[in-house]
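Second attempt. The first submission of Cytochrome P450 had a stray character pasted in from the spreadsheet, which I only caught after the job came back as garbage. Lesson logged: always re-copy from the clean sequence file. Corrected sequence (126 aa) follows.
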Amino acid sequence: MQLGEVFTIIVSSAEYAKEVMKTQEIIFASRPIILASELLAYNSTDIAFSPYGDYWRHLRKICALELFTPKFINSFKPIREEVFTNLIEMIASEKGSPINLTEAVLSAIYTIISKSAFGKKDKDQE
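This time the job returned cleanly.
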């Protein structure tokens, strides 16, 4: 089946899902190249959009060894604790008034990402 410009397969049974995800995984491992990934991800060279192959495996190895270690993840624990404490206090301060929880949680997540990546909140979040 084709959805827009992307060829798509639909798997409707556990047996075929196993075939696609295990036996034939390399055939289906890459994401389609789209204009947005070309423009925003440096010609699709980041880990999210890079085609499966030696380069992608190298990026994955770097992430596994450097970014996704318990020590690295735990180094941001104080940021997560601060942001979620502030979120809980904000929710408690509303005292039964309706709040947009989706907006509040997304803002908290955005703050965590901003503080983790750049060491501070984005100026638009102040």
